[in-house]
Amino acid sequence: MNHTILEAKVRDGYQTAREIYAAYGVDTDQVLDQLAGVQISLHCWQGDDVGGFEAGAGELSGGGILATGNYPGKARNGEELRQDLGTALGLIPGKHRVNLHASYAETGGDFVERDQLTIDLFQNWLAWAEGQGIGLDFNPTFFSHPKAAAGFTLSSRDPAIRSFWIRHAQCCREIAARMGARLGSPCVNNIWVPDGSKDLPADRLVHRQLLKESLDEILAVSYDRAQLVDAVESKLFGIGSESYVVGSHEFYMGYGLSRQIAICLDMGHFHPTESIADKLSALLLFAPHLLLHVSRGVRWDSDHVVILNDDLIALAHEIKRCDAWNRISLALDFFDASINRISAWVIGARATLKALLYAMLEPTDRLAAEEARGNLGNRLALLEELKTLPFGAVWHQYCLTQNVPVGTAWLDHVAAYERDVLAKRGR
Ligand SMILES: C[C@H](O)[C@H](O)[C@@H](O)C(=O)CO
Ligand SMILES: [Mn+2]
């Protein structure tokens, strides 16, 4: 369709939608302003299948996570990854952030051990982020390393292994704080360790005790909250840690609350029928901040590309209903090597934004009022009606006003980029 005609149709559709939502007491213009203020952290690791740029490495190994597929054109270095991220960011409405792992340090081909990392190795990332006007988030990398091969890092019984990983986490906090200071936006530094065992351990307590001590040592230095937000992420099981994960939900819930740091809830890290949405209103009563890893579990895998499904909508509704916008951070977390990697980012980010928009358009006050006066039939009827309101027209208007392609038009940009850039990369 011709662009001018499309634009006119989107604007017409929006005017109708605006009036319909107004009848429910929802101001769509205000909602679109609010949505424009939401930042999603795009995970750099979707761009190269969690390989990283360490000298002599570049492949994901261990850690109980796996990127399957062999789609051509993955980024092979920082320059390519930034170019890919920039392309994805240009197709996602709004201003967002980028989430780095420590293994994406650029060492110029030199081997730098993980406990020796400094902010200097992230100067290219910082300069790029400054140019884009975006913030960065960070993660220490406790996998794809010989010292993680035995399955335990911060909770290892071996004091030498443990102190190596403690030093790694300490330098990562320092790097993250410096990123936050330089970019003028708090950097969320998320600790996830893969520690666990394939079969039944005789002593579950010992590793949890060690993990607790290691974390305390790591967090002993305090940083300005305006620069660094500490988070800890739990998991139910991984490949090779089917019987026991040291950093379980109960462990980190206890740890995070007692230390008043952010708790990270990954949508793919719980039992298959367990939704993290219901956890928000409970944790927000006690935790200062939550980091939400937006992901999609499918059977054994916790990291499929995010789509607009019931889980995601339920999560967005809870953020809205708890009015938790300033107490949560949203970060994508999936890795699919079987499809175009830029499409993966764009699909996941757009789906997340759609869910947030859908929730923001909810007349929550009306639902709550029916509930408070005990008319649960009206509450249910309203919930059903809301599902068929013209949400898509509001989404299209958002894309239009944010100068990104409307509908599937972004696929043409990805196809051109694949032809002109990705196809020319070697494997
Ligand atoms: C690569 C990330 O650190 C990782 O995805 C982590 O957040 C996780 O969810 C592990 O399963
Ligand atoms: Mn995660």
Give the overall shape.
globular
Q: Helix count?
A: 14
The CATH topology name reads TIM Barrel
Spell out the helices and strands N to C.
HHEHEHEHEEHEEHEHEEEHEHHHHH
- The appropriate CATH architecture is Alpha-Beta Barrel
Could you tell me the radius of gyration in angstroms? 22 Å
Number of strands: 12
Helix content: 40-55%
Q: What are the main properties of this structure?
A:
single chain, 427 residues, alpha/beta, TIM Barrel, eight-stranded parallel beta sheet, two-stranded antiparallel ribbon, 14 helices, 12% strand, globular, binds ligand L2XQQQDX, binds manganese (II) ion, rhamnose metabolism, L-rhamnose isomerase
Short description:
The protein has helices spanning 3-23, 28-36, 78-89, 123-132, 159-183, 204-218, 249-259, 277-283, 310-321, 341-360, 364-372, 376-386, 391-401, 410-420; strands spanning 40-43, 97-101, 136-139, 187-191, 196-197, 228-233, 244-245, 262-266, 290-294, 296-298, 301-304, 328-332. The protein is of the alpha/beta class and 427 residues long.
